[in-house]
């Protein structure tokens, strides 16, 4: 609009949550709530809950997507809405979905629990009487939002958060935490790990994500040797950000593991790879391959890329340097925290955890 200032609201979203966006053109009489609850299990854990769901209803297809994204910029205020009650249909949908989504048992990182969303945001817009476009865009636990106004008087000043407002981060190994030496770990040791175990990884850890996996599988199909021996080793699905100043690497959080599912059997059977580290659930094809090869899948915490990077003490490129951030790196890690998400028997905590919590929630209702 005309004026002498520019109002800017930025949301630096991660690709994992953006990739889980959903859209449908419903019939006018269809239930938005029912459709959202139908989509939720299909979104998996790759959007890194607990976060927010932005829902856009109405307009055209592109308008519904736009207002769903805009809804995520609004502040978290579901508790205020619960206290005062809804004043329109959009607010009624917010309250209904907030209750139903959290009763789904999906929980933090999809491992099961009471909190799957911190808020539900709904925006609506007039639309054609024959249509009901509906969009869902999730926002992960890392809400990287900035809001400022430029009025020509100089650069905007953004107040930095106080570090004391955050809890102190420690990596102490308690009775239920196991330290693992990646340089000496054996298949027999891997078989003792149980679903849900917390591990602290130490030693040399390879990396590789979409582009590297595609190239490796193509090379294996041609009988060509890989640039690094993966027998008995672990690979971390990550594309590290370039380091600045004295950093070893920049933020290095896990990427969504399901994108590597189609490569998993080939990698396990033809390279001797022992395990993988990523975020979110694995599909059934990958779980079957893990079970058949008595391998393991470990889950790092999504949405906390900077904190994960603090465990990386050395980094060097060992293959496919031309791929940049998608090259194969060798990290030396110290007490990198992960959870056993799929064990060597093929048990997935992303299946057992939410199922258990859904039952607990139903019994307590």
From TrEMBL:
It catalyses: (S)-malate = fumarate + H2O. It comes from the Bacteria. InterPro entries: Fe-S_hydro-lyase_TtdA-typ_cat (IPR004646), Fe-S_hydro-lyase_TtdB-typ_cat (IPR004647), Fe-S_hydroAse_TtdB_cat_sf (IPR036660). GO terms for molecular function: 4 iron, 4 sulfur cluster binding; fumarate hydratase activity; metal ion binding. Residues 152-352 form the Fe-S hydro-lyase tartrate dehydratase beta-type catalytic domain. Residues 2-148 form the Fe-S hydro-lyase tartrate dehydratase alpha-type catalytic domain. Gene3D superfamilies: Fe-S hydro-lyase, tartrate dehydratase beta-type, catalytic domain. Keywords: 4Fe-4S, Iron, Iron-sulfur, Lyase, Metal-binding. Belongs to the class-I fumarase family. This is Fumarate hydratase. The lineage of its organism: Bacteria, Pseudomonadati, Pseudomonadota, Gammaproteobacteria, Oceanospirillales.
């Amino acid at each position: 609009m005309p004026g002498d200032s520019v109002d800017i609201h930025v949301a630096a979203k991660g690709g994992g949550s953006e990739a889980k966006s959903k859209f449908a053109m419903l019939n006018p009489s269809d239930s938005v709530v029912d459709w959202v609850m139908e989509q939720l299990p299909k979104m998996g854990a790759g959007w890194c809950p607990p976060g927010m769901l932005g829902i856009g209803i109405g307009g055209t297809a592109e308008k519904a997507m736009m207002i769903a994204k805009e809804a995520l910029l609004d502040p978290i205020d579901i508790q205020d809405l619960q206290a005062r009650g809804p004043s329109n249909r959009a607010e009624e949908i917010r309250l209904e979905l907030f209750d139903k989504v959290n009763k789904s048992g999906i929980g933090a990182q999809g491992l099961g629990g009471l909190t799957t969303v911190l808020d539900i945001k709904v925006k609506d817009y007039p639309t054609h009487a024959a249509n009901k476009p509906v969009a869902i865009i999730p926002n992960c636990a890392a809400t990287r939002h900035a809001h400022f106004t430029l009025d020509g008087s100089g650069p905007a000043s953004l107040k930095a958060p106080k570090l004391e407002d955050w809890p102190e981060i420690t990596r102490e190994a308690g009775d239920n935490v196991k330290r693992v030496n990646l340089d000496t770990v054996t298949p027999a040791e891997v078989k003792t790990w149980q679903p849900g175990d917390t591990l602290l990884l130490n030693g040399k850890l390879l990396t590789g994500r979409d582009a590297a996996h595609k190239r490796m599988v193509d090379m294996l199909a041609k009988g060509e040797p890989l640039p690094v021996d993966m027998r008995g080793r672990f690979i971390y699905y990550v594309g590290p950000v370039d380091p600045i100043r004295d950093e070893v690497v920049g933020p290095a959080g896990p990427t969504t593991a399901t994108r590597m599912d189609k490569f998993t059997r080939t990698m396990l059977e033809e390279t001797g790879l022992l395990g993988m580290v990523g975020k979110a659930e694995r599909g059934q094809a990958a779980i079957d391959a893990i079970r058949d090869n008595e391998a393991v899948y470990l889950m790092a915490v999504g949405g906390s890329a900077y904190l994960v990077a603090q465990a990386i003490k050395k980094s060097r490129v060992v293959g496919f340097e031309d791929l940049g951030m998608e090259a194969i790196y060798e990290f030396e890690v110290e007490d990198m925290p992960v959870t056993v998400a799929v064990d060597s028997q093929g048990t997935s905590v992303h299946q057992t955890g939410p199922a258990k919590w859904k039952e607990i929630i139903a019994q307590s209702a």
